[in-house]
């Protein structure tokens, strides 16, 4: 039997709209006391490893959690303008992939700073900073994608004016490896909260209630996934 289901589901998208922006803002604020450029970020990791690990982990988690929200927005845009939805959705998703790639480099460099010292980590990062890779050619999507998405949500009335402007502020967020927090970083992540958190809260009551079978499956799946997550850290 066919339904109007859209992957990954309304409830998942709603949770994504709430948690993704909040985690991004949390990570941004946690590292705000340290200078923006990578030598200072690495020194901060040597001096405050727990705080910096939490900051970069929150930011990475928020970035990854955003993908269902973006798919939901693109789907809503697509009902009025499929071509614009494709350009907007794909641009932002590629930008999210790139930030995730950068986060891997961030965590490797921060690990070097913690274990070998900030000076050693800084020399490794500075020598390899301009190395070319696939995402070198797609960096523009990190910022440009949010402007396209903001225009698309405004043009199709998928979001209101204020929320669309909030999406656009994410284009101010600096890109690259080991970038700390500037005032535009706070504006961008706070703007994303304004854009998506109310939409996510509003969408939760509208989401279909899970069936008993779904609740039972989830109750079984959660501890299994927890065990798999632990096992994944061992190899």
Verbal overview:
Helix content is 74%, strand content 0%. It is mainly α and 235 residues long. Helix 5 (82-116) packs antiparallel against helix 7. The longest helix is centred in the middle third of the chain and has 35 residues, at 82-116.
The helix content is over 70%
Structure classification:
mainly alpha
Biggest sheet layout: none
What's the total number of strands? 0
Uncertain residue segments: none
**Helix-strand pattern:** HHHHHHHHHH
Gyration radius, rounded:
19 Å
Q: What average pLDDT do the residues reach?
A: 93
N-to-C CA distance? 42 Å
- Global geometry: globular
> How many helix segments?
10
Q: Which band does the percent of strand residues land in?
A: under 5%
| Domain module count | 1
Key traits:
about 240 residues
Outline the fold blueprint.
Layout: H1 10-30, H2 38-47, H3 49-65, H4 67-78, H5 82-116, H6 118-128, H7 140-155, H8 161-169, H9 183-203, H10 212-232
Helix pairs in contact: 1-3, 1-4, 1-9, 2-3, 2-5, 2-6, 3-5, 4-5, 5-6, 5-7, 7-8, 8-9
């Amino acid at each position: 039997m066919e339904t109007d289901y859209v992957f990954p589901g309304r409830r998942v998208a709603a949770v994504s709209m709430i948690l993704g922006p909040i985690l991004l803002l949390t990570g941004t604020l946690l590292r705000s006391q340290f200078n923006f450029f990578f030598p200072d970020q690495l020194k901060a990791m040597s001096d405050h490893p727990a705080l910096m690990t939490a900051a970069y982990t929150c930011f990475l988690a928020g970035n990854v959690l955003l993908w269902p929200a973006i798919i939901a927005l693109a789907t809503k845009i697509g009902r009025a303008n499929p071509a614009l939805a494709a350009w907007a959705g794909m641009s932002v998703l590629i930008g999210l992939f790139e930030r995730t790639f950068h986060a891997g480099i961030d965590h490797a460099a921060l690990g070097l700073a913690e274990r070998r010292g900030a000076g050693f980590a800084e020399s490794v990062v500075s020598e390899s900073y301009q190395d070319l890779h696939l995402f070198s050619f797609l960096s523009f999507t990190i910022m440009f994608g949010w402007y396209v998405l903001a225009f698309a949500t405004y043009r199709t009335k998928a979001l209101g004016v204020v929320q669309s402007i909030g999406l656009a502020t994410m284009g101010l967020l600096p890109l690259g490896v080991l970038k700390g927090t500037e005032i535009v970083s706070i504006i961008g992540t706070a703007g994303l909260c304004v854009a998506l958190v109310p939409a996510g809260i509003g969408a939760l009551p509208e989401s279909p209630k899970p069936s008993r079978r779904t609740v039972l499956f989830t109750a079984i799946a959660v501890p299994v996934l927890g065990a798999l997550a632990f096992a994944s850290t061992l190899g």
